[in-house]
Amino acid sequence: MTLLSGITTLIYFIASIFYLVSMIGKQQRAGQVGRWVLLLGIVLHATCFGVRHSTAGGVPVTSLHESLSFFAWCLVLLFLLLDLRFRLSVMGAFAAPLAFGLMVASALSPHIVVQINPVLKSWLFPVHITFAFLGSAAFALSFGAGVMYLIQNRMLKSKRFTGIYQMLPSLDTLDKVNYTCLSIGFPLMTLGIISGAFWANTAWGTYWRWDPKETWALITWFLYAALLHGRLTIGWRGRKAAIFSIIAFMFLLFTFLGVNLLLGGYHTFEAFAVL
Predict the structure, then answer these.
(1) Domain boundaries, given as residue ranges, for the chain
(2) Residue-level pLDDT, tens digit, the chain, 275 residues
(3) Are the CB atoms for 7 and 44 separated by under 8 Å?
(4) Chain Cα centroid distance, residue 170
(5) Domain 1-115 class, CATH top level
(6) Residues 221, 196: contact at Cβ < 8 Å?
(7) Which of 211, 14, 181, 4 lies closest to 106 in space, CA to CA?
(8) Which of 66, 158, 190, 229 is most exposed by smallest CB count within 10 Å?
């Protein structure tokens, strides 16, 4: 398992190099190679989860090590699907290094196998986890597009065009990517919260307990709902939408990591374990 995970991490690193070469050197061929390398990585990564599942006897996302790894896999999966639509190698220069960084962080985390509490075992658990992580991955890509938009927009306004200006897509394309990721991520997050509520009811007999994780997830959901509402009804786009997506993602990061590590509650990694 450790060997497979290490090879996957190396593959993501190689893909990162190809995508960075594609962006910096304007080498389209390098971006195409990076895409195939990432595809190989995601298949091998899925194999890692299969091995981990057979070892743990359950869904392999009950520890920090597993969660970071699964987040990386979801990120790469959504990027490859998004790349089919927009063919933006420059987004690979964001997604691949981020996936590599998540895998490194995962490798540095304790490689413990958490035997999940029988009370929490339900088919709703993998459904809830999958929706939540895919939604978070979509918002991570939205965050990346937002950062690129602000960089591009700042250079246009200041009329100071550095080398990176030629590497980035147009503002209109970046705004479309931002909106597409938001449109994908928000329904997935919503389904994650709903399935989580039903899962909680089967495990604890109540749909909502105002656990810190639930509370921050709801706050984050309202932020993204406000952003989507603003884009659809008020006409928010461009710089305002980019800034809002970055702020919302900061809340999402705290919900994903900060709550688990700092605030405790029923959603900590320890809370999944057999008592």
Answers:
(1) 1-115, 116-275
(2) 578 888 999 999 999 999 988 877 767 788 889 899 999 999 999 998 887 767 666 666 777 888 899 999 999 999 999 888 777 778 888 899 999 999 999 888 877 666 666 666 777 888 888 999 999 999 999 999 999 899 888 877 766 655 565 667 788 888 888 999 999 999 999 999 999 888 878 877 777 777 888 888 899 999 999 999 998 888 788 888 999 999 999 999 888 887 777 666 555 554 444 43
(3) yes
(4) 24
(5) mainly alpha
(6) no
(7) 4
(8) 158
